[in-house]
Amino acid sequence: MALKNTYAKLPAGRYIQDIQEMLIKAGAIGIQQGFEDGRVISLMFMLDLNGQKITFKMPVGWRKVQQVLKNEGIGRWQDDDYAYRVSWAILCDWIDAQLAILASETVTMPQLFLPYAVAKDGQTLFEKVSSNGLLLGDGK
Q: In the chain, what are the domain boundaries?
């Protein structure tokens, strides 16, 4: 399957801004950016769940996307800014699709983003589950 958004034209900052606006419109009560080497590498946002404030962390794995671009033979894969921009465009589209499901009123915002909920130790729920199989079984 070909990587989406390889023709992304907007600066990464525009995709980040669009994501933040979507999250606020959907009910986020706080947003924070995580940085590495001067680049935004994650967005953390907070939701109120029955009076409890829950933080969710959405990472953008732009170096992994860059490797996929290389593997797919995309000529600009070595351009860090390009890979970074494509990564944010992909995340922006994914969040937009998740929020379309939310608009159908069949799920809640916390349900959509549950794997990205941050535990007290700073790990996301997905990281906790994947590292020790927490709560997972064969369904029987």
A: 12-132
